[in-house]
Amino acid sequence: MAPTDPLEEAYLAHRERLLRFLRARGGGEASEDLLQDLWLRLAAAPDPAAASGLGYMMRAADRLMIDRYRSERQATLREKAWAEAQPGMAEGIAPAPGPERALAARQEVARVERALAELGPRAAAILRRHRIDGLTQRDIAAEFGVSLSTVESDLRRAYAAILAVREGGE
Amino acid sequence: MTTDQPIRDVALAWAMATRAPDFADWEGFAAWLEADASHAAAYDAVQYALEEADAVLAALPEPEPVAANDNPPGWLAGRRGWLGGAIAASLAVALTSVLWLAPGGEKLYRTAPGETQLIALDDGSTVELAGGSTLALEGPRAARLEGGQALFTIRHDAADPFVLNAGGERLVDAGTVFDVRLAGETLDVAVAEGAVIVDPHGEGIRLDPGERAVRAGGRFRLAEIDSEAVGEWRRGRISFEAASLAEIAAELTRATGTRFTSTDTATRLSGSIALDAVRADPQALGPLLAVRVTRAGDGWMIAAK
To answer: Strands B176-183 and B186-193, how do they pair?
Structure first.
């Protein structure tokens, strides 16, 4: 196979570094397979020239691992919910979300809402601009007329509050 | 489930850092992950928790900027002004310079890439802000360059010197026209008239006209510059000295507003470029710098030949 595609060339040049990163990221035995998954994602990127950069590839590798953790975790939660909701029943039927789970979700919303309210309006607004609207910390600093370090410390406080809610809730 | 606090805090710091679009320290991140298997698990748990919270956050009603006692008045006023303007002129706000009043009476100026702005200070001094730059006026005689480049023409007052903060360094004028460029950790100060004292409390380097101090890798290096060339970006020309292609791409983006990228941090070039030619035809860079320029999405990719 003679790589003529610049994206493929870049991928092959960075292959060892990406593999090492996937291993470090907890890929273990599956790292080679994960590297294949990564290549499929890179090959499907809308802008192959941008996707050829090492930074882009590392970010995509990190994203791949975040997505993998999410799907594994949700599979575990589904199995747990199944075992609780349908004891002794045959497999293959997806359990409907029970009233307990809906209640738990609503309680979590209330807890996050309360934690954000305690942060004060600026930190809550900054968190929203960063996480939901996708603004960079620098852009947020300009928009709110505060220093970059203020934005960073507001975000750090907000994140700590969110993590505390989730750790308390599980 | 409780993760050890210190590891979780470091994991959170990495999660915050990797979220920045210009995050580049993947080596450092990988080294931290490799140090202990529990680090990857902690990072995963933090990323998952934050993304789960995003869903909750997105579902909450948008906060109204209402008057509250714990709201700093300056912040509220600035935010209100922006909200009002957003309806009529959201495009103008995005493309032109903006000014907000921050709590401490700080004024923030910001230019889009390719745009410049002249700021007149009360004492007759002026600051010309280059494209893609942010400057905070902390008071009548104090400013902070948060990024980008600016040419300062300062009315000297020995009793009340003008102080500029840039990249953690204090620059004090001694009757001066000087240019400052801050790109990441690289700080470049060049003097056209008068003098500037760099780092007045430490080494106290005095720069006279035609002198230039470049901080890279945490150390200052002195160089010469033609006084006429100081602030030449205002006349549509930029110069590089042993700059990597990635740095040149970032500078060109800031100066022209056209997106240039390069992944090459090894190839270093020196030279001077007339921006008009590049604005008219980005591929003109090819023969000017002896590099390869190819279309990349809505921008251009620069690579070594």
So the answer is: antiparallel
Q: Which of B240, B245, B237 shows the shortest CA–CA distance to B266?
A: B245
Model pTM?
A: 0.47
Tell me whether residue A156 is in a domain: yes
Boundaries of every domain in chain B:
5-59, 65-95, 105-229, 236-304
Q: Are residues A109 and A68 in the same domain?
A: no
Number of domains in chain A: 2
B195-206, pLDDT tens digit by residue? 888 875 566 778
Q: How is domain B236-304 classified at the CATH fold level?
A: Phage tail protein beta-alpha-beta fold (3.55.50)
What range defines the domain where residue A111 resides? 97-169
Q: What confidence score (pLDDT) does residue B22 get?
A: 82
Same domain, A104 and A165: yes
The string of pLDDT tens digits covering residues B222-251 is 888 888 888 888 878 888 777 889 989 988
Nearest CA in chain B to A166: B49
Q: Per-block average pLDDT, block size 10, for chain B (305 residues)?
A: 67 88 87 90 91 79 49 34 30 30 65 82 83 87 90 83 86 82 86 81 76 80 81 82 87 89 88 84 86 89 90
- Fold of the domain built from segment(s) B105-229: Jelly Rolls (2.60.120)
CB proximity under 8 Å: A 112-131 to B: 112-113, 116, 120-122, 124-125, 127-128, 130-131
Smallest CA–CA separation between B100 and chain A, in Å? 6
Give this complex's ipTM. 0.84
- Within a domain: residue A110? yes
CA atoms within 13 A on the CB side of A138: 19
Looking at residue B294, its pLDDT comes to 92
Q: How far apart are CA B281 and CA B283, in angstroms?
A: 5
Name the nearest CA neighbour of B50 among B5, B14, B22: B14
User: Regarding beta strands B299-304 and B260-261, do their DSSP bridges make them parallel or antiparallel, or are they unpaired?
Assistant: parallel
The token pair at A103 is 């209640």
From chain B, pick out residues whose CB is under 8 angstroms from the CB of A65. Answer: 40, 44
Chain B residue with minimum CA distance to A137: B20
